[in-house]
From TrEMBL:
This is Amidohydrolase. Keywords: Hydrolase, Manganese, Metal-binding. The lineage of its organism: Bacteria, Pseudomonadati, Pseudomonadota, Alphaproteobacteria, Hyphomicrobiales. The keyword Thylakoid does not apply. Mn(2+) binds at residues 103, 105, 138, 165, 360.
């Protein structure tokens, strides 16, 4: 097991990569410059097996170990930025107004590139490692789902897959992880409330969809507070509401949208069924009606037992047991790495970003002091999972 100090030699170079990526953010699947940079770096490390253009701009690169035959494990980094106007005021801030790396994917990419450079130069493992550079983590349809649907697990013979994400609020040099569900599923829905338009001075002649929408919003809160076990997590949030164009007109329709998060497939089914039943009952009771469009997006991100044990062991050997929280509370946010964990067993781990601004905040910036810890984790994970001589 290699000490984190060994990887500090790579920190300066990885910092340069990370800040260059930060200055030049790209969105969703349109990562042509980012993917070009990554592919160029991988080739410069002496990696010959590089496939580009997966899910438009995704990359998978294979490094063969010198320890003989063995399995292939996948390591995934996401590459896309967010449509946010940056306010970090760093010298390496985004050069493109309205786009920024507000979730640290620039850091994730730099850490996996650093690990790639080291592993390509040493190759002290058996089998192979598949480096997965993924587009479109922040948008739908998901980049992880697209890569899985394009067959990367079978094409590259990947038997296990691992992910890593930075998190503000955990000290640099520390890790967090848990077995089983670690991130929630993500569903989205739209409700169209149908009423009857009319003059605002004669509301009794209309069926006001705004009043109905307000009652629906209040009614949906009881799905969590009065209809589910308080020991089980379910979040139903209305995040969009739009109705009307004039001060003196009762509109005919109102539109709202929201999100559902849970760790339970049963509660996912319950939410889809009961959102319609509740909204429909309220609307019809007030003389209107509703139409629901419900979309299931990311599933629960589920850490598999054996692979989570491996991730914990590797992190502890790198930074010490006291710096690894292996019972981190699951988070109600979601992550499309879930699709890769549905396709193959694996685990995602969180790496500390220190006391920085939160993810998706205009003031956020990835902490470059975390780079050697992430590089070290990836290298030690490969050399442990694919130990030559086992």
């Amino acid at each position: 097991m290699r000490s984190v100090e060994l990887f500090r030699d790579l920190q300066s170079e990885a910092t340069t990569w990370r800040r260059l990526l930060h200055q030049n953010p790209e969105l969703d699947y349109r990562l042509h410059n980012t993917a070009g940079f990554v592919a160029e770096k991988l080739a410069s490390f002496g990696i010959n097996d590089i496939e580009t253009g997966i899910a438009e701009t995704g990359i998978v690169a294979l490094i063969q170990g010198e320890g003989g035959e063995g399995p292939t494990i996948g390591l995934r980094a996401d590459m896309d930025a967010l449509p946010i106007l940056e306010e970090s005021n760093k010298p390496w801030s985004s050069k493109t107004p309205g786009k920024m790396h507000g979730c640290g994917h620039d850091g994730h990419t730099a850490m996996l590139l650093g690990a790639a450079k080291y592993l390509a130069s040493t190759r002290k493992f058996k089998g192979s490692v598949a480096l997965i550079f993924q587009p479109a983590e922040e948008v739908l349809p998901s980049g992880a789902l697209s890569m899985v649907q394009e067959g990367i697990m079978d094409r590259f013979g990947i038997s296990q897959v691992f992910g890593m994400h930075n998190t503000p609020g955990i000290e640099v040099g520390k890790f967090g992880i848990c077995h089983g569900p670690i991130l929630a599923s993500l569903d989205e829905f739209d409700i169209v409330v149908a009423g009857k338009g009319g003059h605002a001075a004669r509301p009794h002649e209309a069926i006001d969809p705004i009043v109905i929408a307000g009652q629906v919003i209040v009614g949906l809160q009881t799905l969590v507070s009065r209809n589910t076990n308080p020991l089980e997590a379910l979040v139903v949030s209305i995040t969009k509401l739009n109705a009307g164009t004039s001060y003196n007109i009762v509109p005919a329709h109102a539109e709202m949208g929201g999100t559902v998060r849970t760790f339970s497939p049963a509660l996912r089914d319950f939410a889809e069924r009961q959102i319609l039943a509740s909204a429909q009952g309220i609307a019809r009771g007030l003389g209107g009606d509703v139409e629901l469009k419900y979309r299931r997006d990311c599933p629960v991100t589920f850490n598999h037992s054996e692979e989570t044990d491996l991730a914990i062991r590797v992190a502890r050997n790198l930074v010490g047991s006291a710096s690894v929280n292996d019972k981190m509370s699951p988070r109600i946010s979601s992550e499309d790495f879930a699709y890769m964990l549905q396709a193959r067993p694996g685990a995602i781990i969180y790496i500390g970003n220190g006391s920085t601004a939160a993810l998706h905040n205009p003031a956020y910036d990835f902490n470059d002091e975390a780079l050697p810890y992430g590089i070290g984790y990836w290298v030690n994970l490969v050399e442990t999972a694919l130990a030559a001589g086992n």
